[in-house]
């Protein structure tokens, strides 16, 4: 007898689901039995990813700029209209934003990162939470935070601020929604070679992976989008039925020891300038 699929019968909305971690999660969630709504601003790519996911009809795409609350609400409403419910919200959309340090940071640039990473996550929690509470069947809300939500040195100032805020928002939401049976958690990856990461720091996927491996405590493995998607799958599934208010850090013990990705990045850039490896 075939094993039961881990998300069989569930409906998931994934913001930022057209590429990177979101795309990996959309494919994995669907493979594990979920109906998936991909919500993203990359329309051509999002429709292509949605159309490529099997079985046909198990994935739908909607344009959604998470800076616009009504668009987030529309993504949740679409899931309910098409599939009858929403069980999982994976609030994954985010940007790196300004690379400036604190003393050089333009506050308008900080506002831009906050609008996507924090306000977008707040909108996702708000509208998914409302729908889950109204249905009375509980649910799981997962927010993509970062190792930059755990300690400094893993990203520029604006990004670090917003990911710390996402972590705090998750805790507040877990406390409020728990009595309604809705779980809220974070997944916090180490450096992953996503289009967002590579574009944000101006590096190739190969270089991002090299730097991350140099900085990582755990050797012999390379963190990829599928690993983060697998962590999100666990939090989405009934396997984590009593886990809420938790930050699942996917970093191979790096933040436990305190190694800084920032130092590794600086060393890599220094070698590049000097003609080294």
From TrEMBL:
<comment type="similarity">
    <text>Belongs to the short-chain dehydrogenases/reductases (SDR) family.</text>
</comment>
<protein>
    <submittedName>
        <fullName>Short-chain dehydrogenase reductase 3b</fullName>
    </submittedName>
</protein>
<dbReference type="Pfam" id="PF13561">
    <property type="entry name" value="adh_short_C2"/>
</dbReference>
<dbReference type="InterPro" id="IPR036291">
    <property type="entry name" value="NAD(P)-bd_dom_sf"/>
</dbReference>
<dbReference type="InterPro" id="IPR002347">
    <property type="entry name" value="SDR_fam"/>
</dbReference>
């Amino acid at each position: 007898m075939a094993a039961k699929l881990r998300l069989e019968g569930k409906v998931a909305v994934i913001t930022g689901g057209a590429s990177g971690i979101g795309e990996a999660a959309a494919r994995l969630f669907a493979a594990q039995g979920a109906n998936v709504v991909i919500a993203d601003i990359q329309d051509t790519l999002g429709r292509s990813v949605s159309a490529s996911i099997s079985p046909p009809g198990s994935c739908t795409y909607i344009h959604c700029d998470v800076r616009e609350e009504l668009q987030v609400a529309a993504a949740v409403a679409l899931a309910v209209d098409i599939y009858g419910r929403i069980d999982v919200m994976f609030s994954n959309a985010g940007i790196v934003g300004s690379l400036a340090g604190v003393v050089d940071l333009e506050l308008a640039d900080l506002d831009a990162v906050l609008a996507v990473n924090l306000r977008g996550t707040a909108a996702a929690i708000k509208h998914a939470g409302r729908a889950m509470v109204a249905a009375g069947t509980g649910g799981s809300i997962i927010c993509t935070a970062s190792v930059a939500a755990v300690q400094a040195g893993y990203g520029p100032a604006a990004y670090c601020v917003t990911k710390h805020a996402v972590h705090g928002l998750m805790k507040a939401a877990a406390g409020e929604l728990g009595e309604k049976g809705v779980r809220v958690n974070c997944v916090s990856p180490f450096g992953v070679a996503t289009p967002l990461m590579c574009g944000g720091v101006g590096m190739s996927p190969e270089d991002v992976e090299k730097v991350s491996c140099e900085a990582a405590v755990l050797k012999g493995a390379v963190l990829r989008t599928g690993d983060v998607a697998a962590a999100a799958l666990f939090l989405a599934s009934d396997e984590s039925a009593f886990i809420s208010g938790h930050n699942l850090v996917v970093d191979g013990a790096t933040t436990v020891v305190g190694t800084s990705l920032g130092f590794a990045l600086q060393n890599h850039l220094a070698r590049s300038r000097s003609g080294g490896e």
